Amino acid sequence: MNEHSVIGLDIAKSVFQVHSVDTTTGQIVRTKLRRKQVLEFFAKQPPQRVALEACGSAHWWARQLASLGHRVTLLSPRLVRPFVLRNKTDAADAQAIWTAAQQPGIKVVAVKSPLQQSILALHRIRAQLLKMRIMQTNAVRGLLYEFGITLPQSDRAMSQQLPAQWAALEREVPAFLMESLREQWQRVCEFSHQLLRSIAGSSIFASRILIAKL
């Protein structure tokens, strides 16, 4: 394969699709690669521009391709979608990426470093933990409401009032339910502790970024 101005690469879990046009002959070149073949394939290509959609694992692939000497362009899937000219296939997606990458003034996505990706991962973990804690807290609140115990919406106020309600609740419900309710509340407390740890981890990463910029 001769040097190309742009290579469009559609990434996936197993099968990758490459789309390019030979600059000397104008021939369209479509290549299907297994995952383990991708880096070997690009290691044999002269340094050139490789365009990818900014989707799952795209930043990792961008860093790998850049380490091989290629100039990587990440594009938002929203900007690539209008250039899919036929039924959506891997080959059509790779061609659409190739076409979109050459549009004048198209906006690109900055390639994230491992540290930046780690911070984003922490934010996602924290958001998931928060969602799970809210679901668990609402479940406990709803179950207790069925037995005439109302608790405040504030998590902090609920945490302060709930211990005082256990004794009264034990007189109302069977022991097996009390055990399950306590397990439910223990999960809420565990989610709270995990949230605190994730916040602490995010602060450490933020401090490293600030130090790196000094």
State the secondary-structure class: alpha/beta
Strand content: 5-15%
What is the molecular shape?
A: elongated
- Poorly predicted runs are none
Tally of separate helices: 7
Distance between the ends? 44 Å
What composes the largest sheet? 5 strands, mixed
Notes on the structure:
- This protein has 214 residues and is α/β, with parallel strands linked by helices.
- 56% of the residues lie in helices and 14% in strands.
- The chain folds into two domains: 96 residues, Nucleotidyltransferase, domain 5 (2-Layer Sandwich), CATH 3.30.420; 100 residues.
- It has a five-stranded mixed sheet with strand order 3-2-1-4-5.
- α5 packs antiparallel against α7.
- The radius of gyration is 26 Å and the shape is elongated.
Give the SSE layout.
Layout: E1 6-10, E2 15-21, E3 28-34, H1 38-43, E4 49-53, H2 58-67, E5 71-75, H3 77-80, H4 90-101, H5 114-145, H6 155-170, H7 175-213
Parallel strand pairs: 1-4, 4-5
Antiparallel strand pairs: 1-2, 2-3
Helix pairs in contact: 5-7
Keywords:
alpha/beta; Nucleotidyltransferase, domain 5; 7 helices; single chain; 2 domains; 214 residues
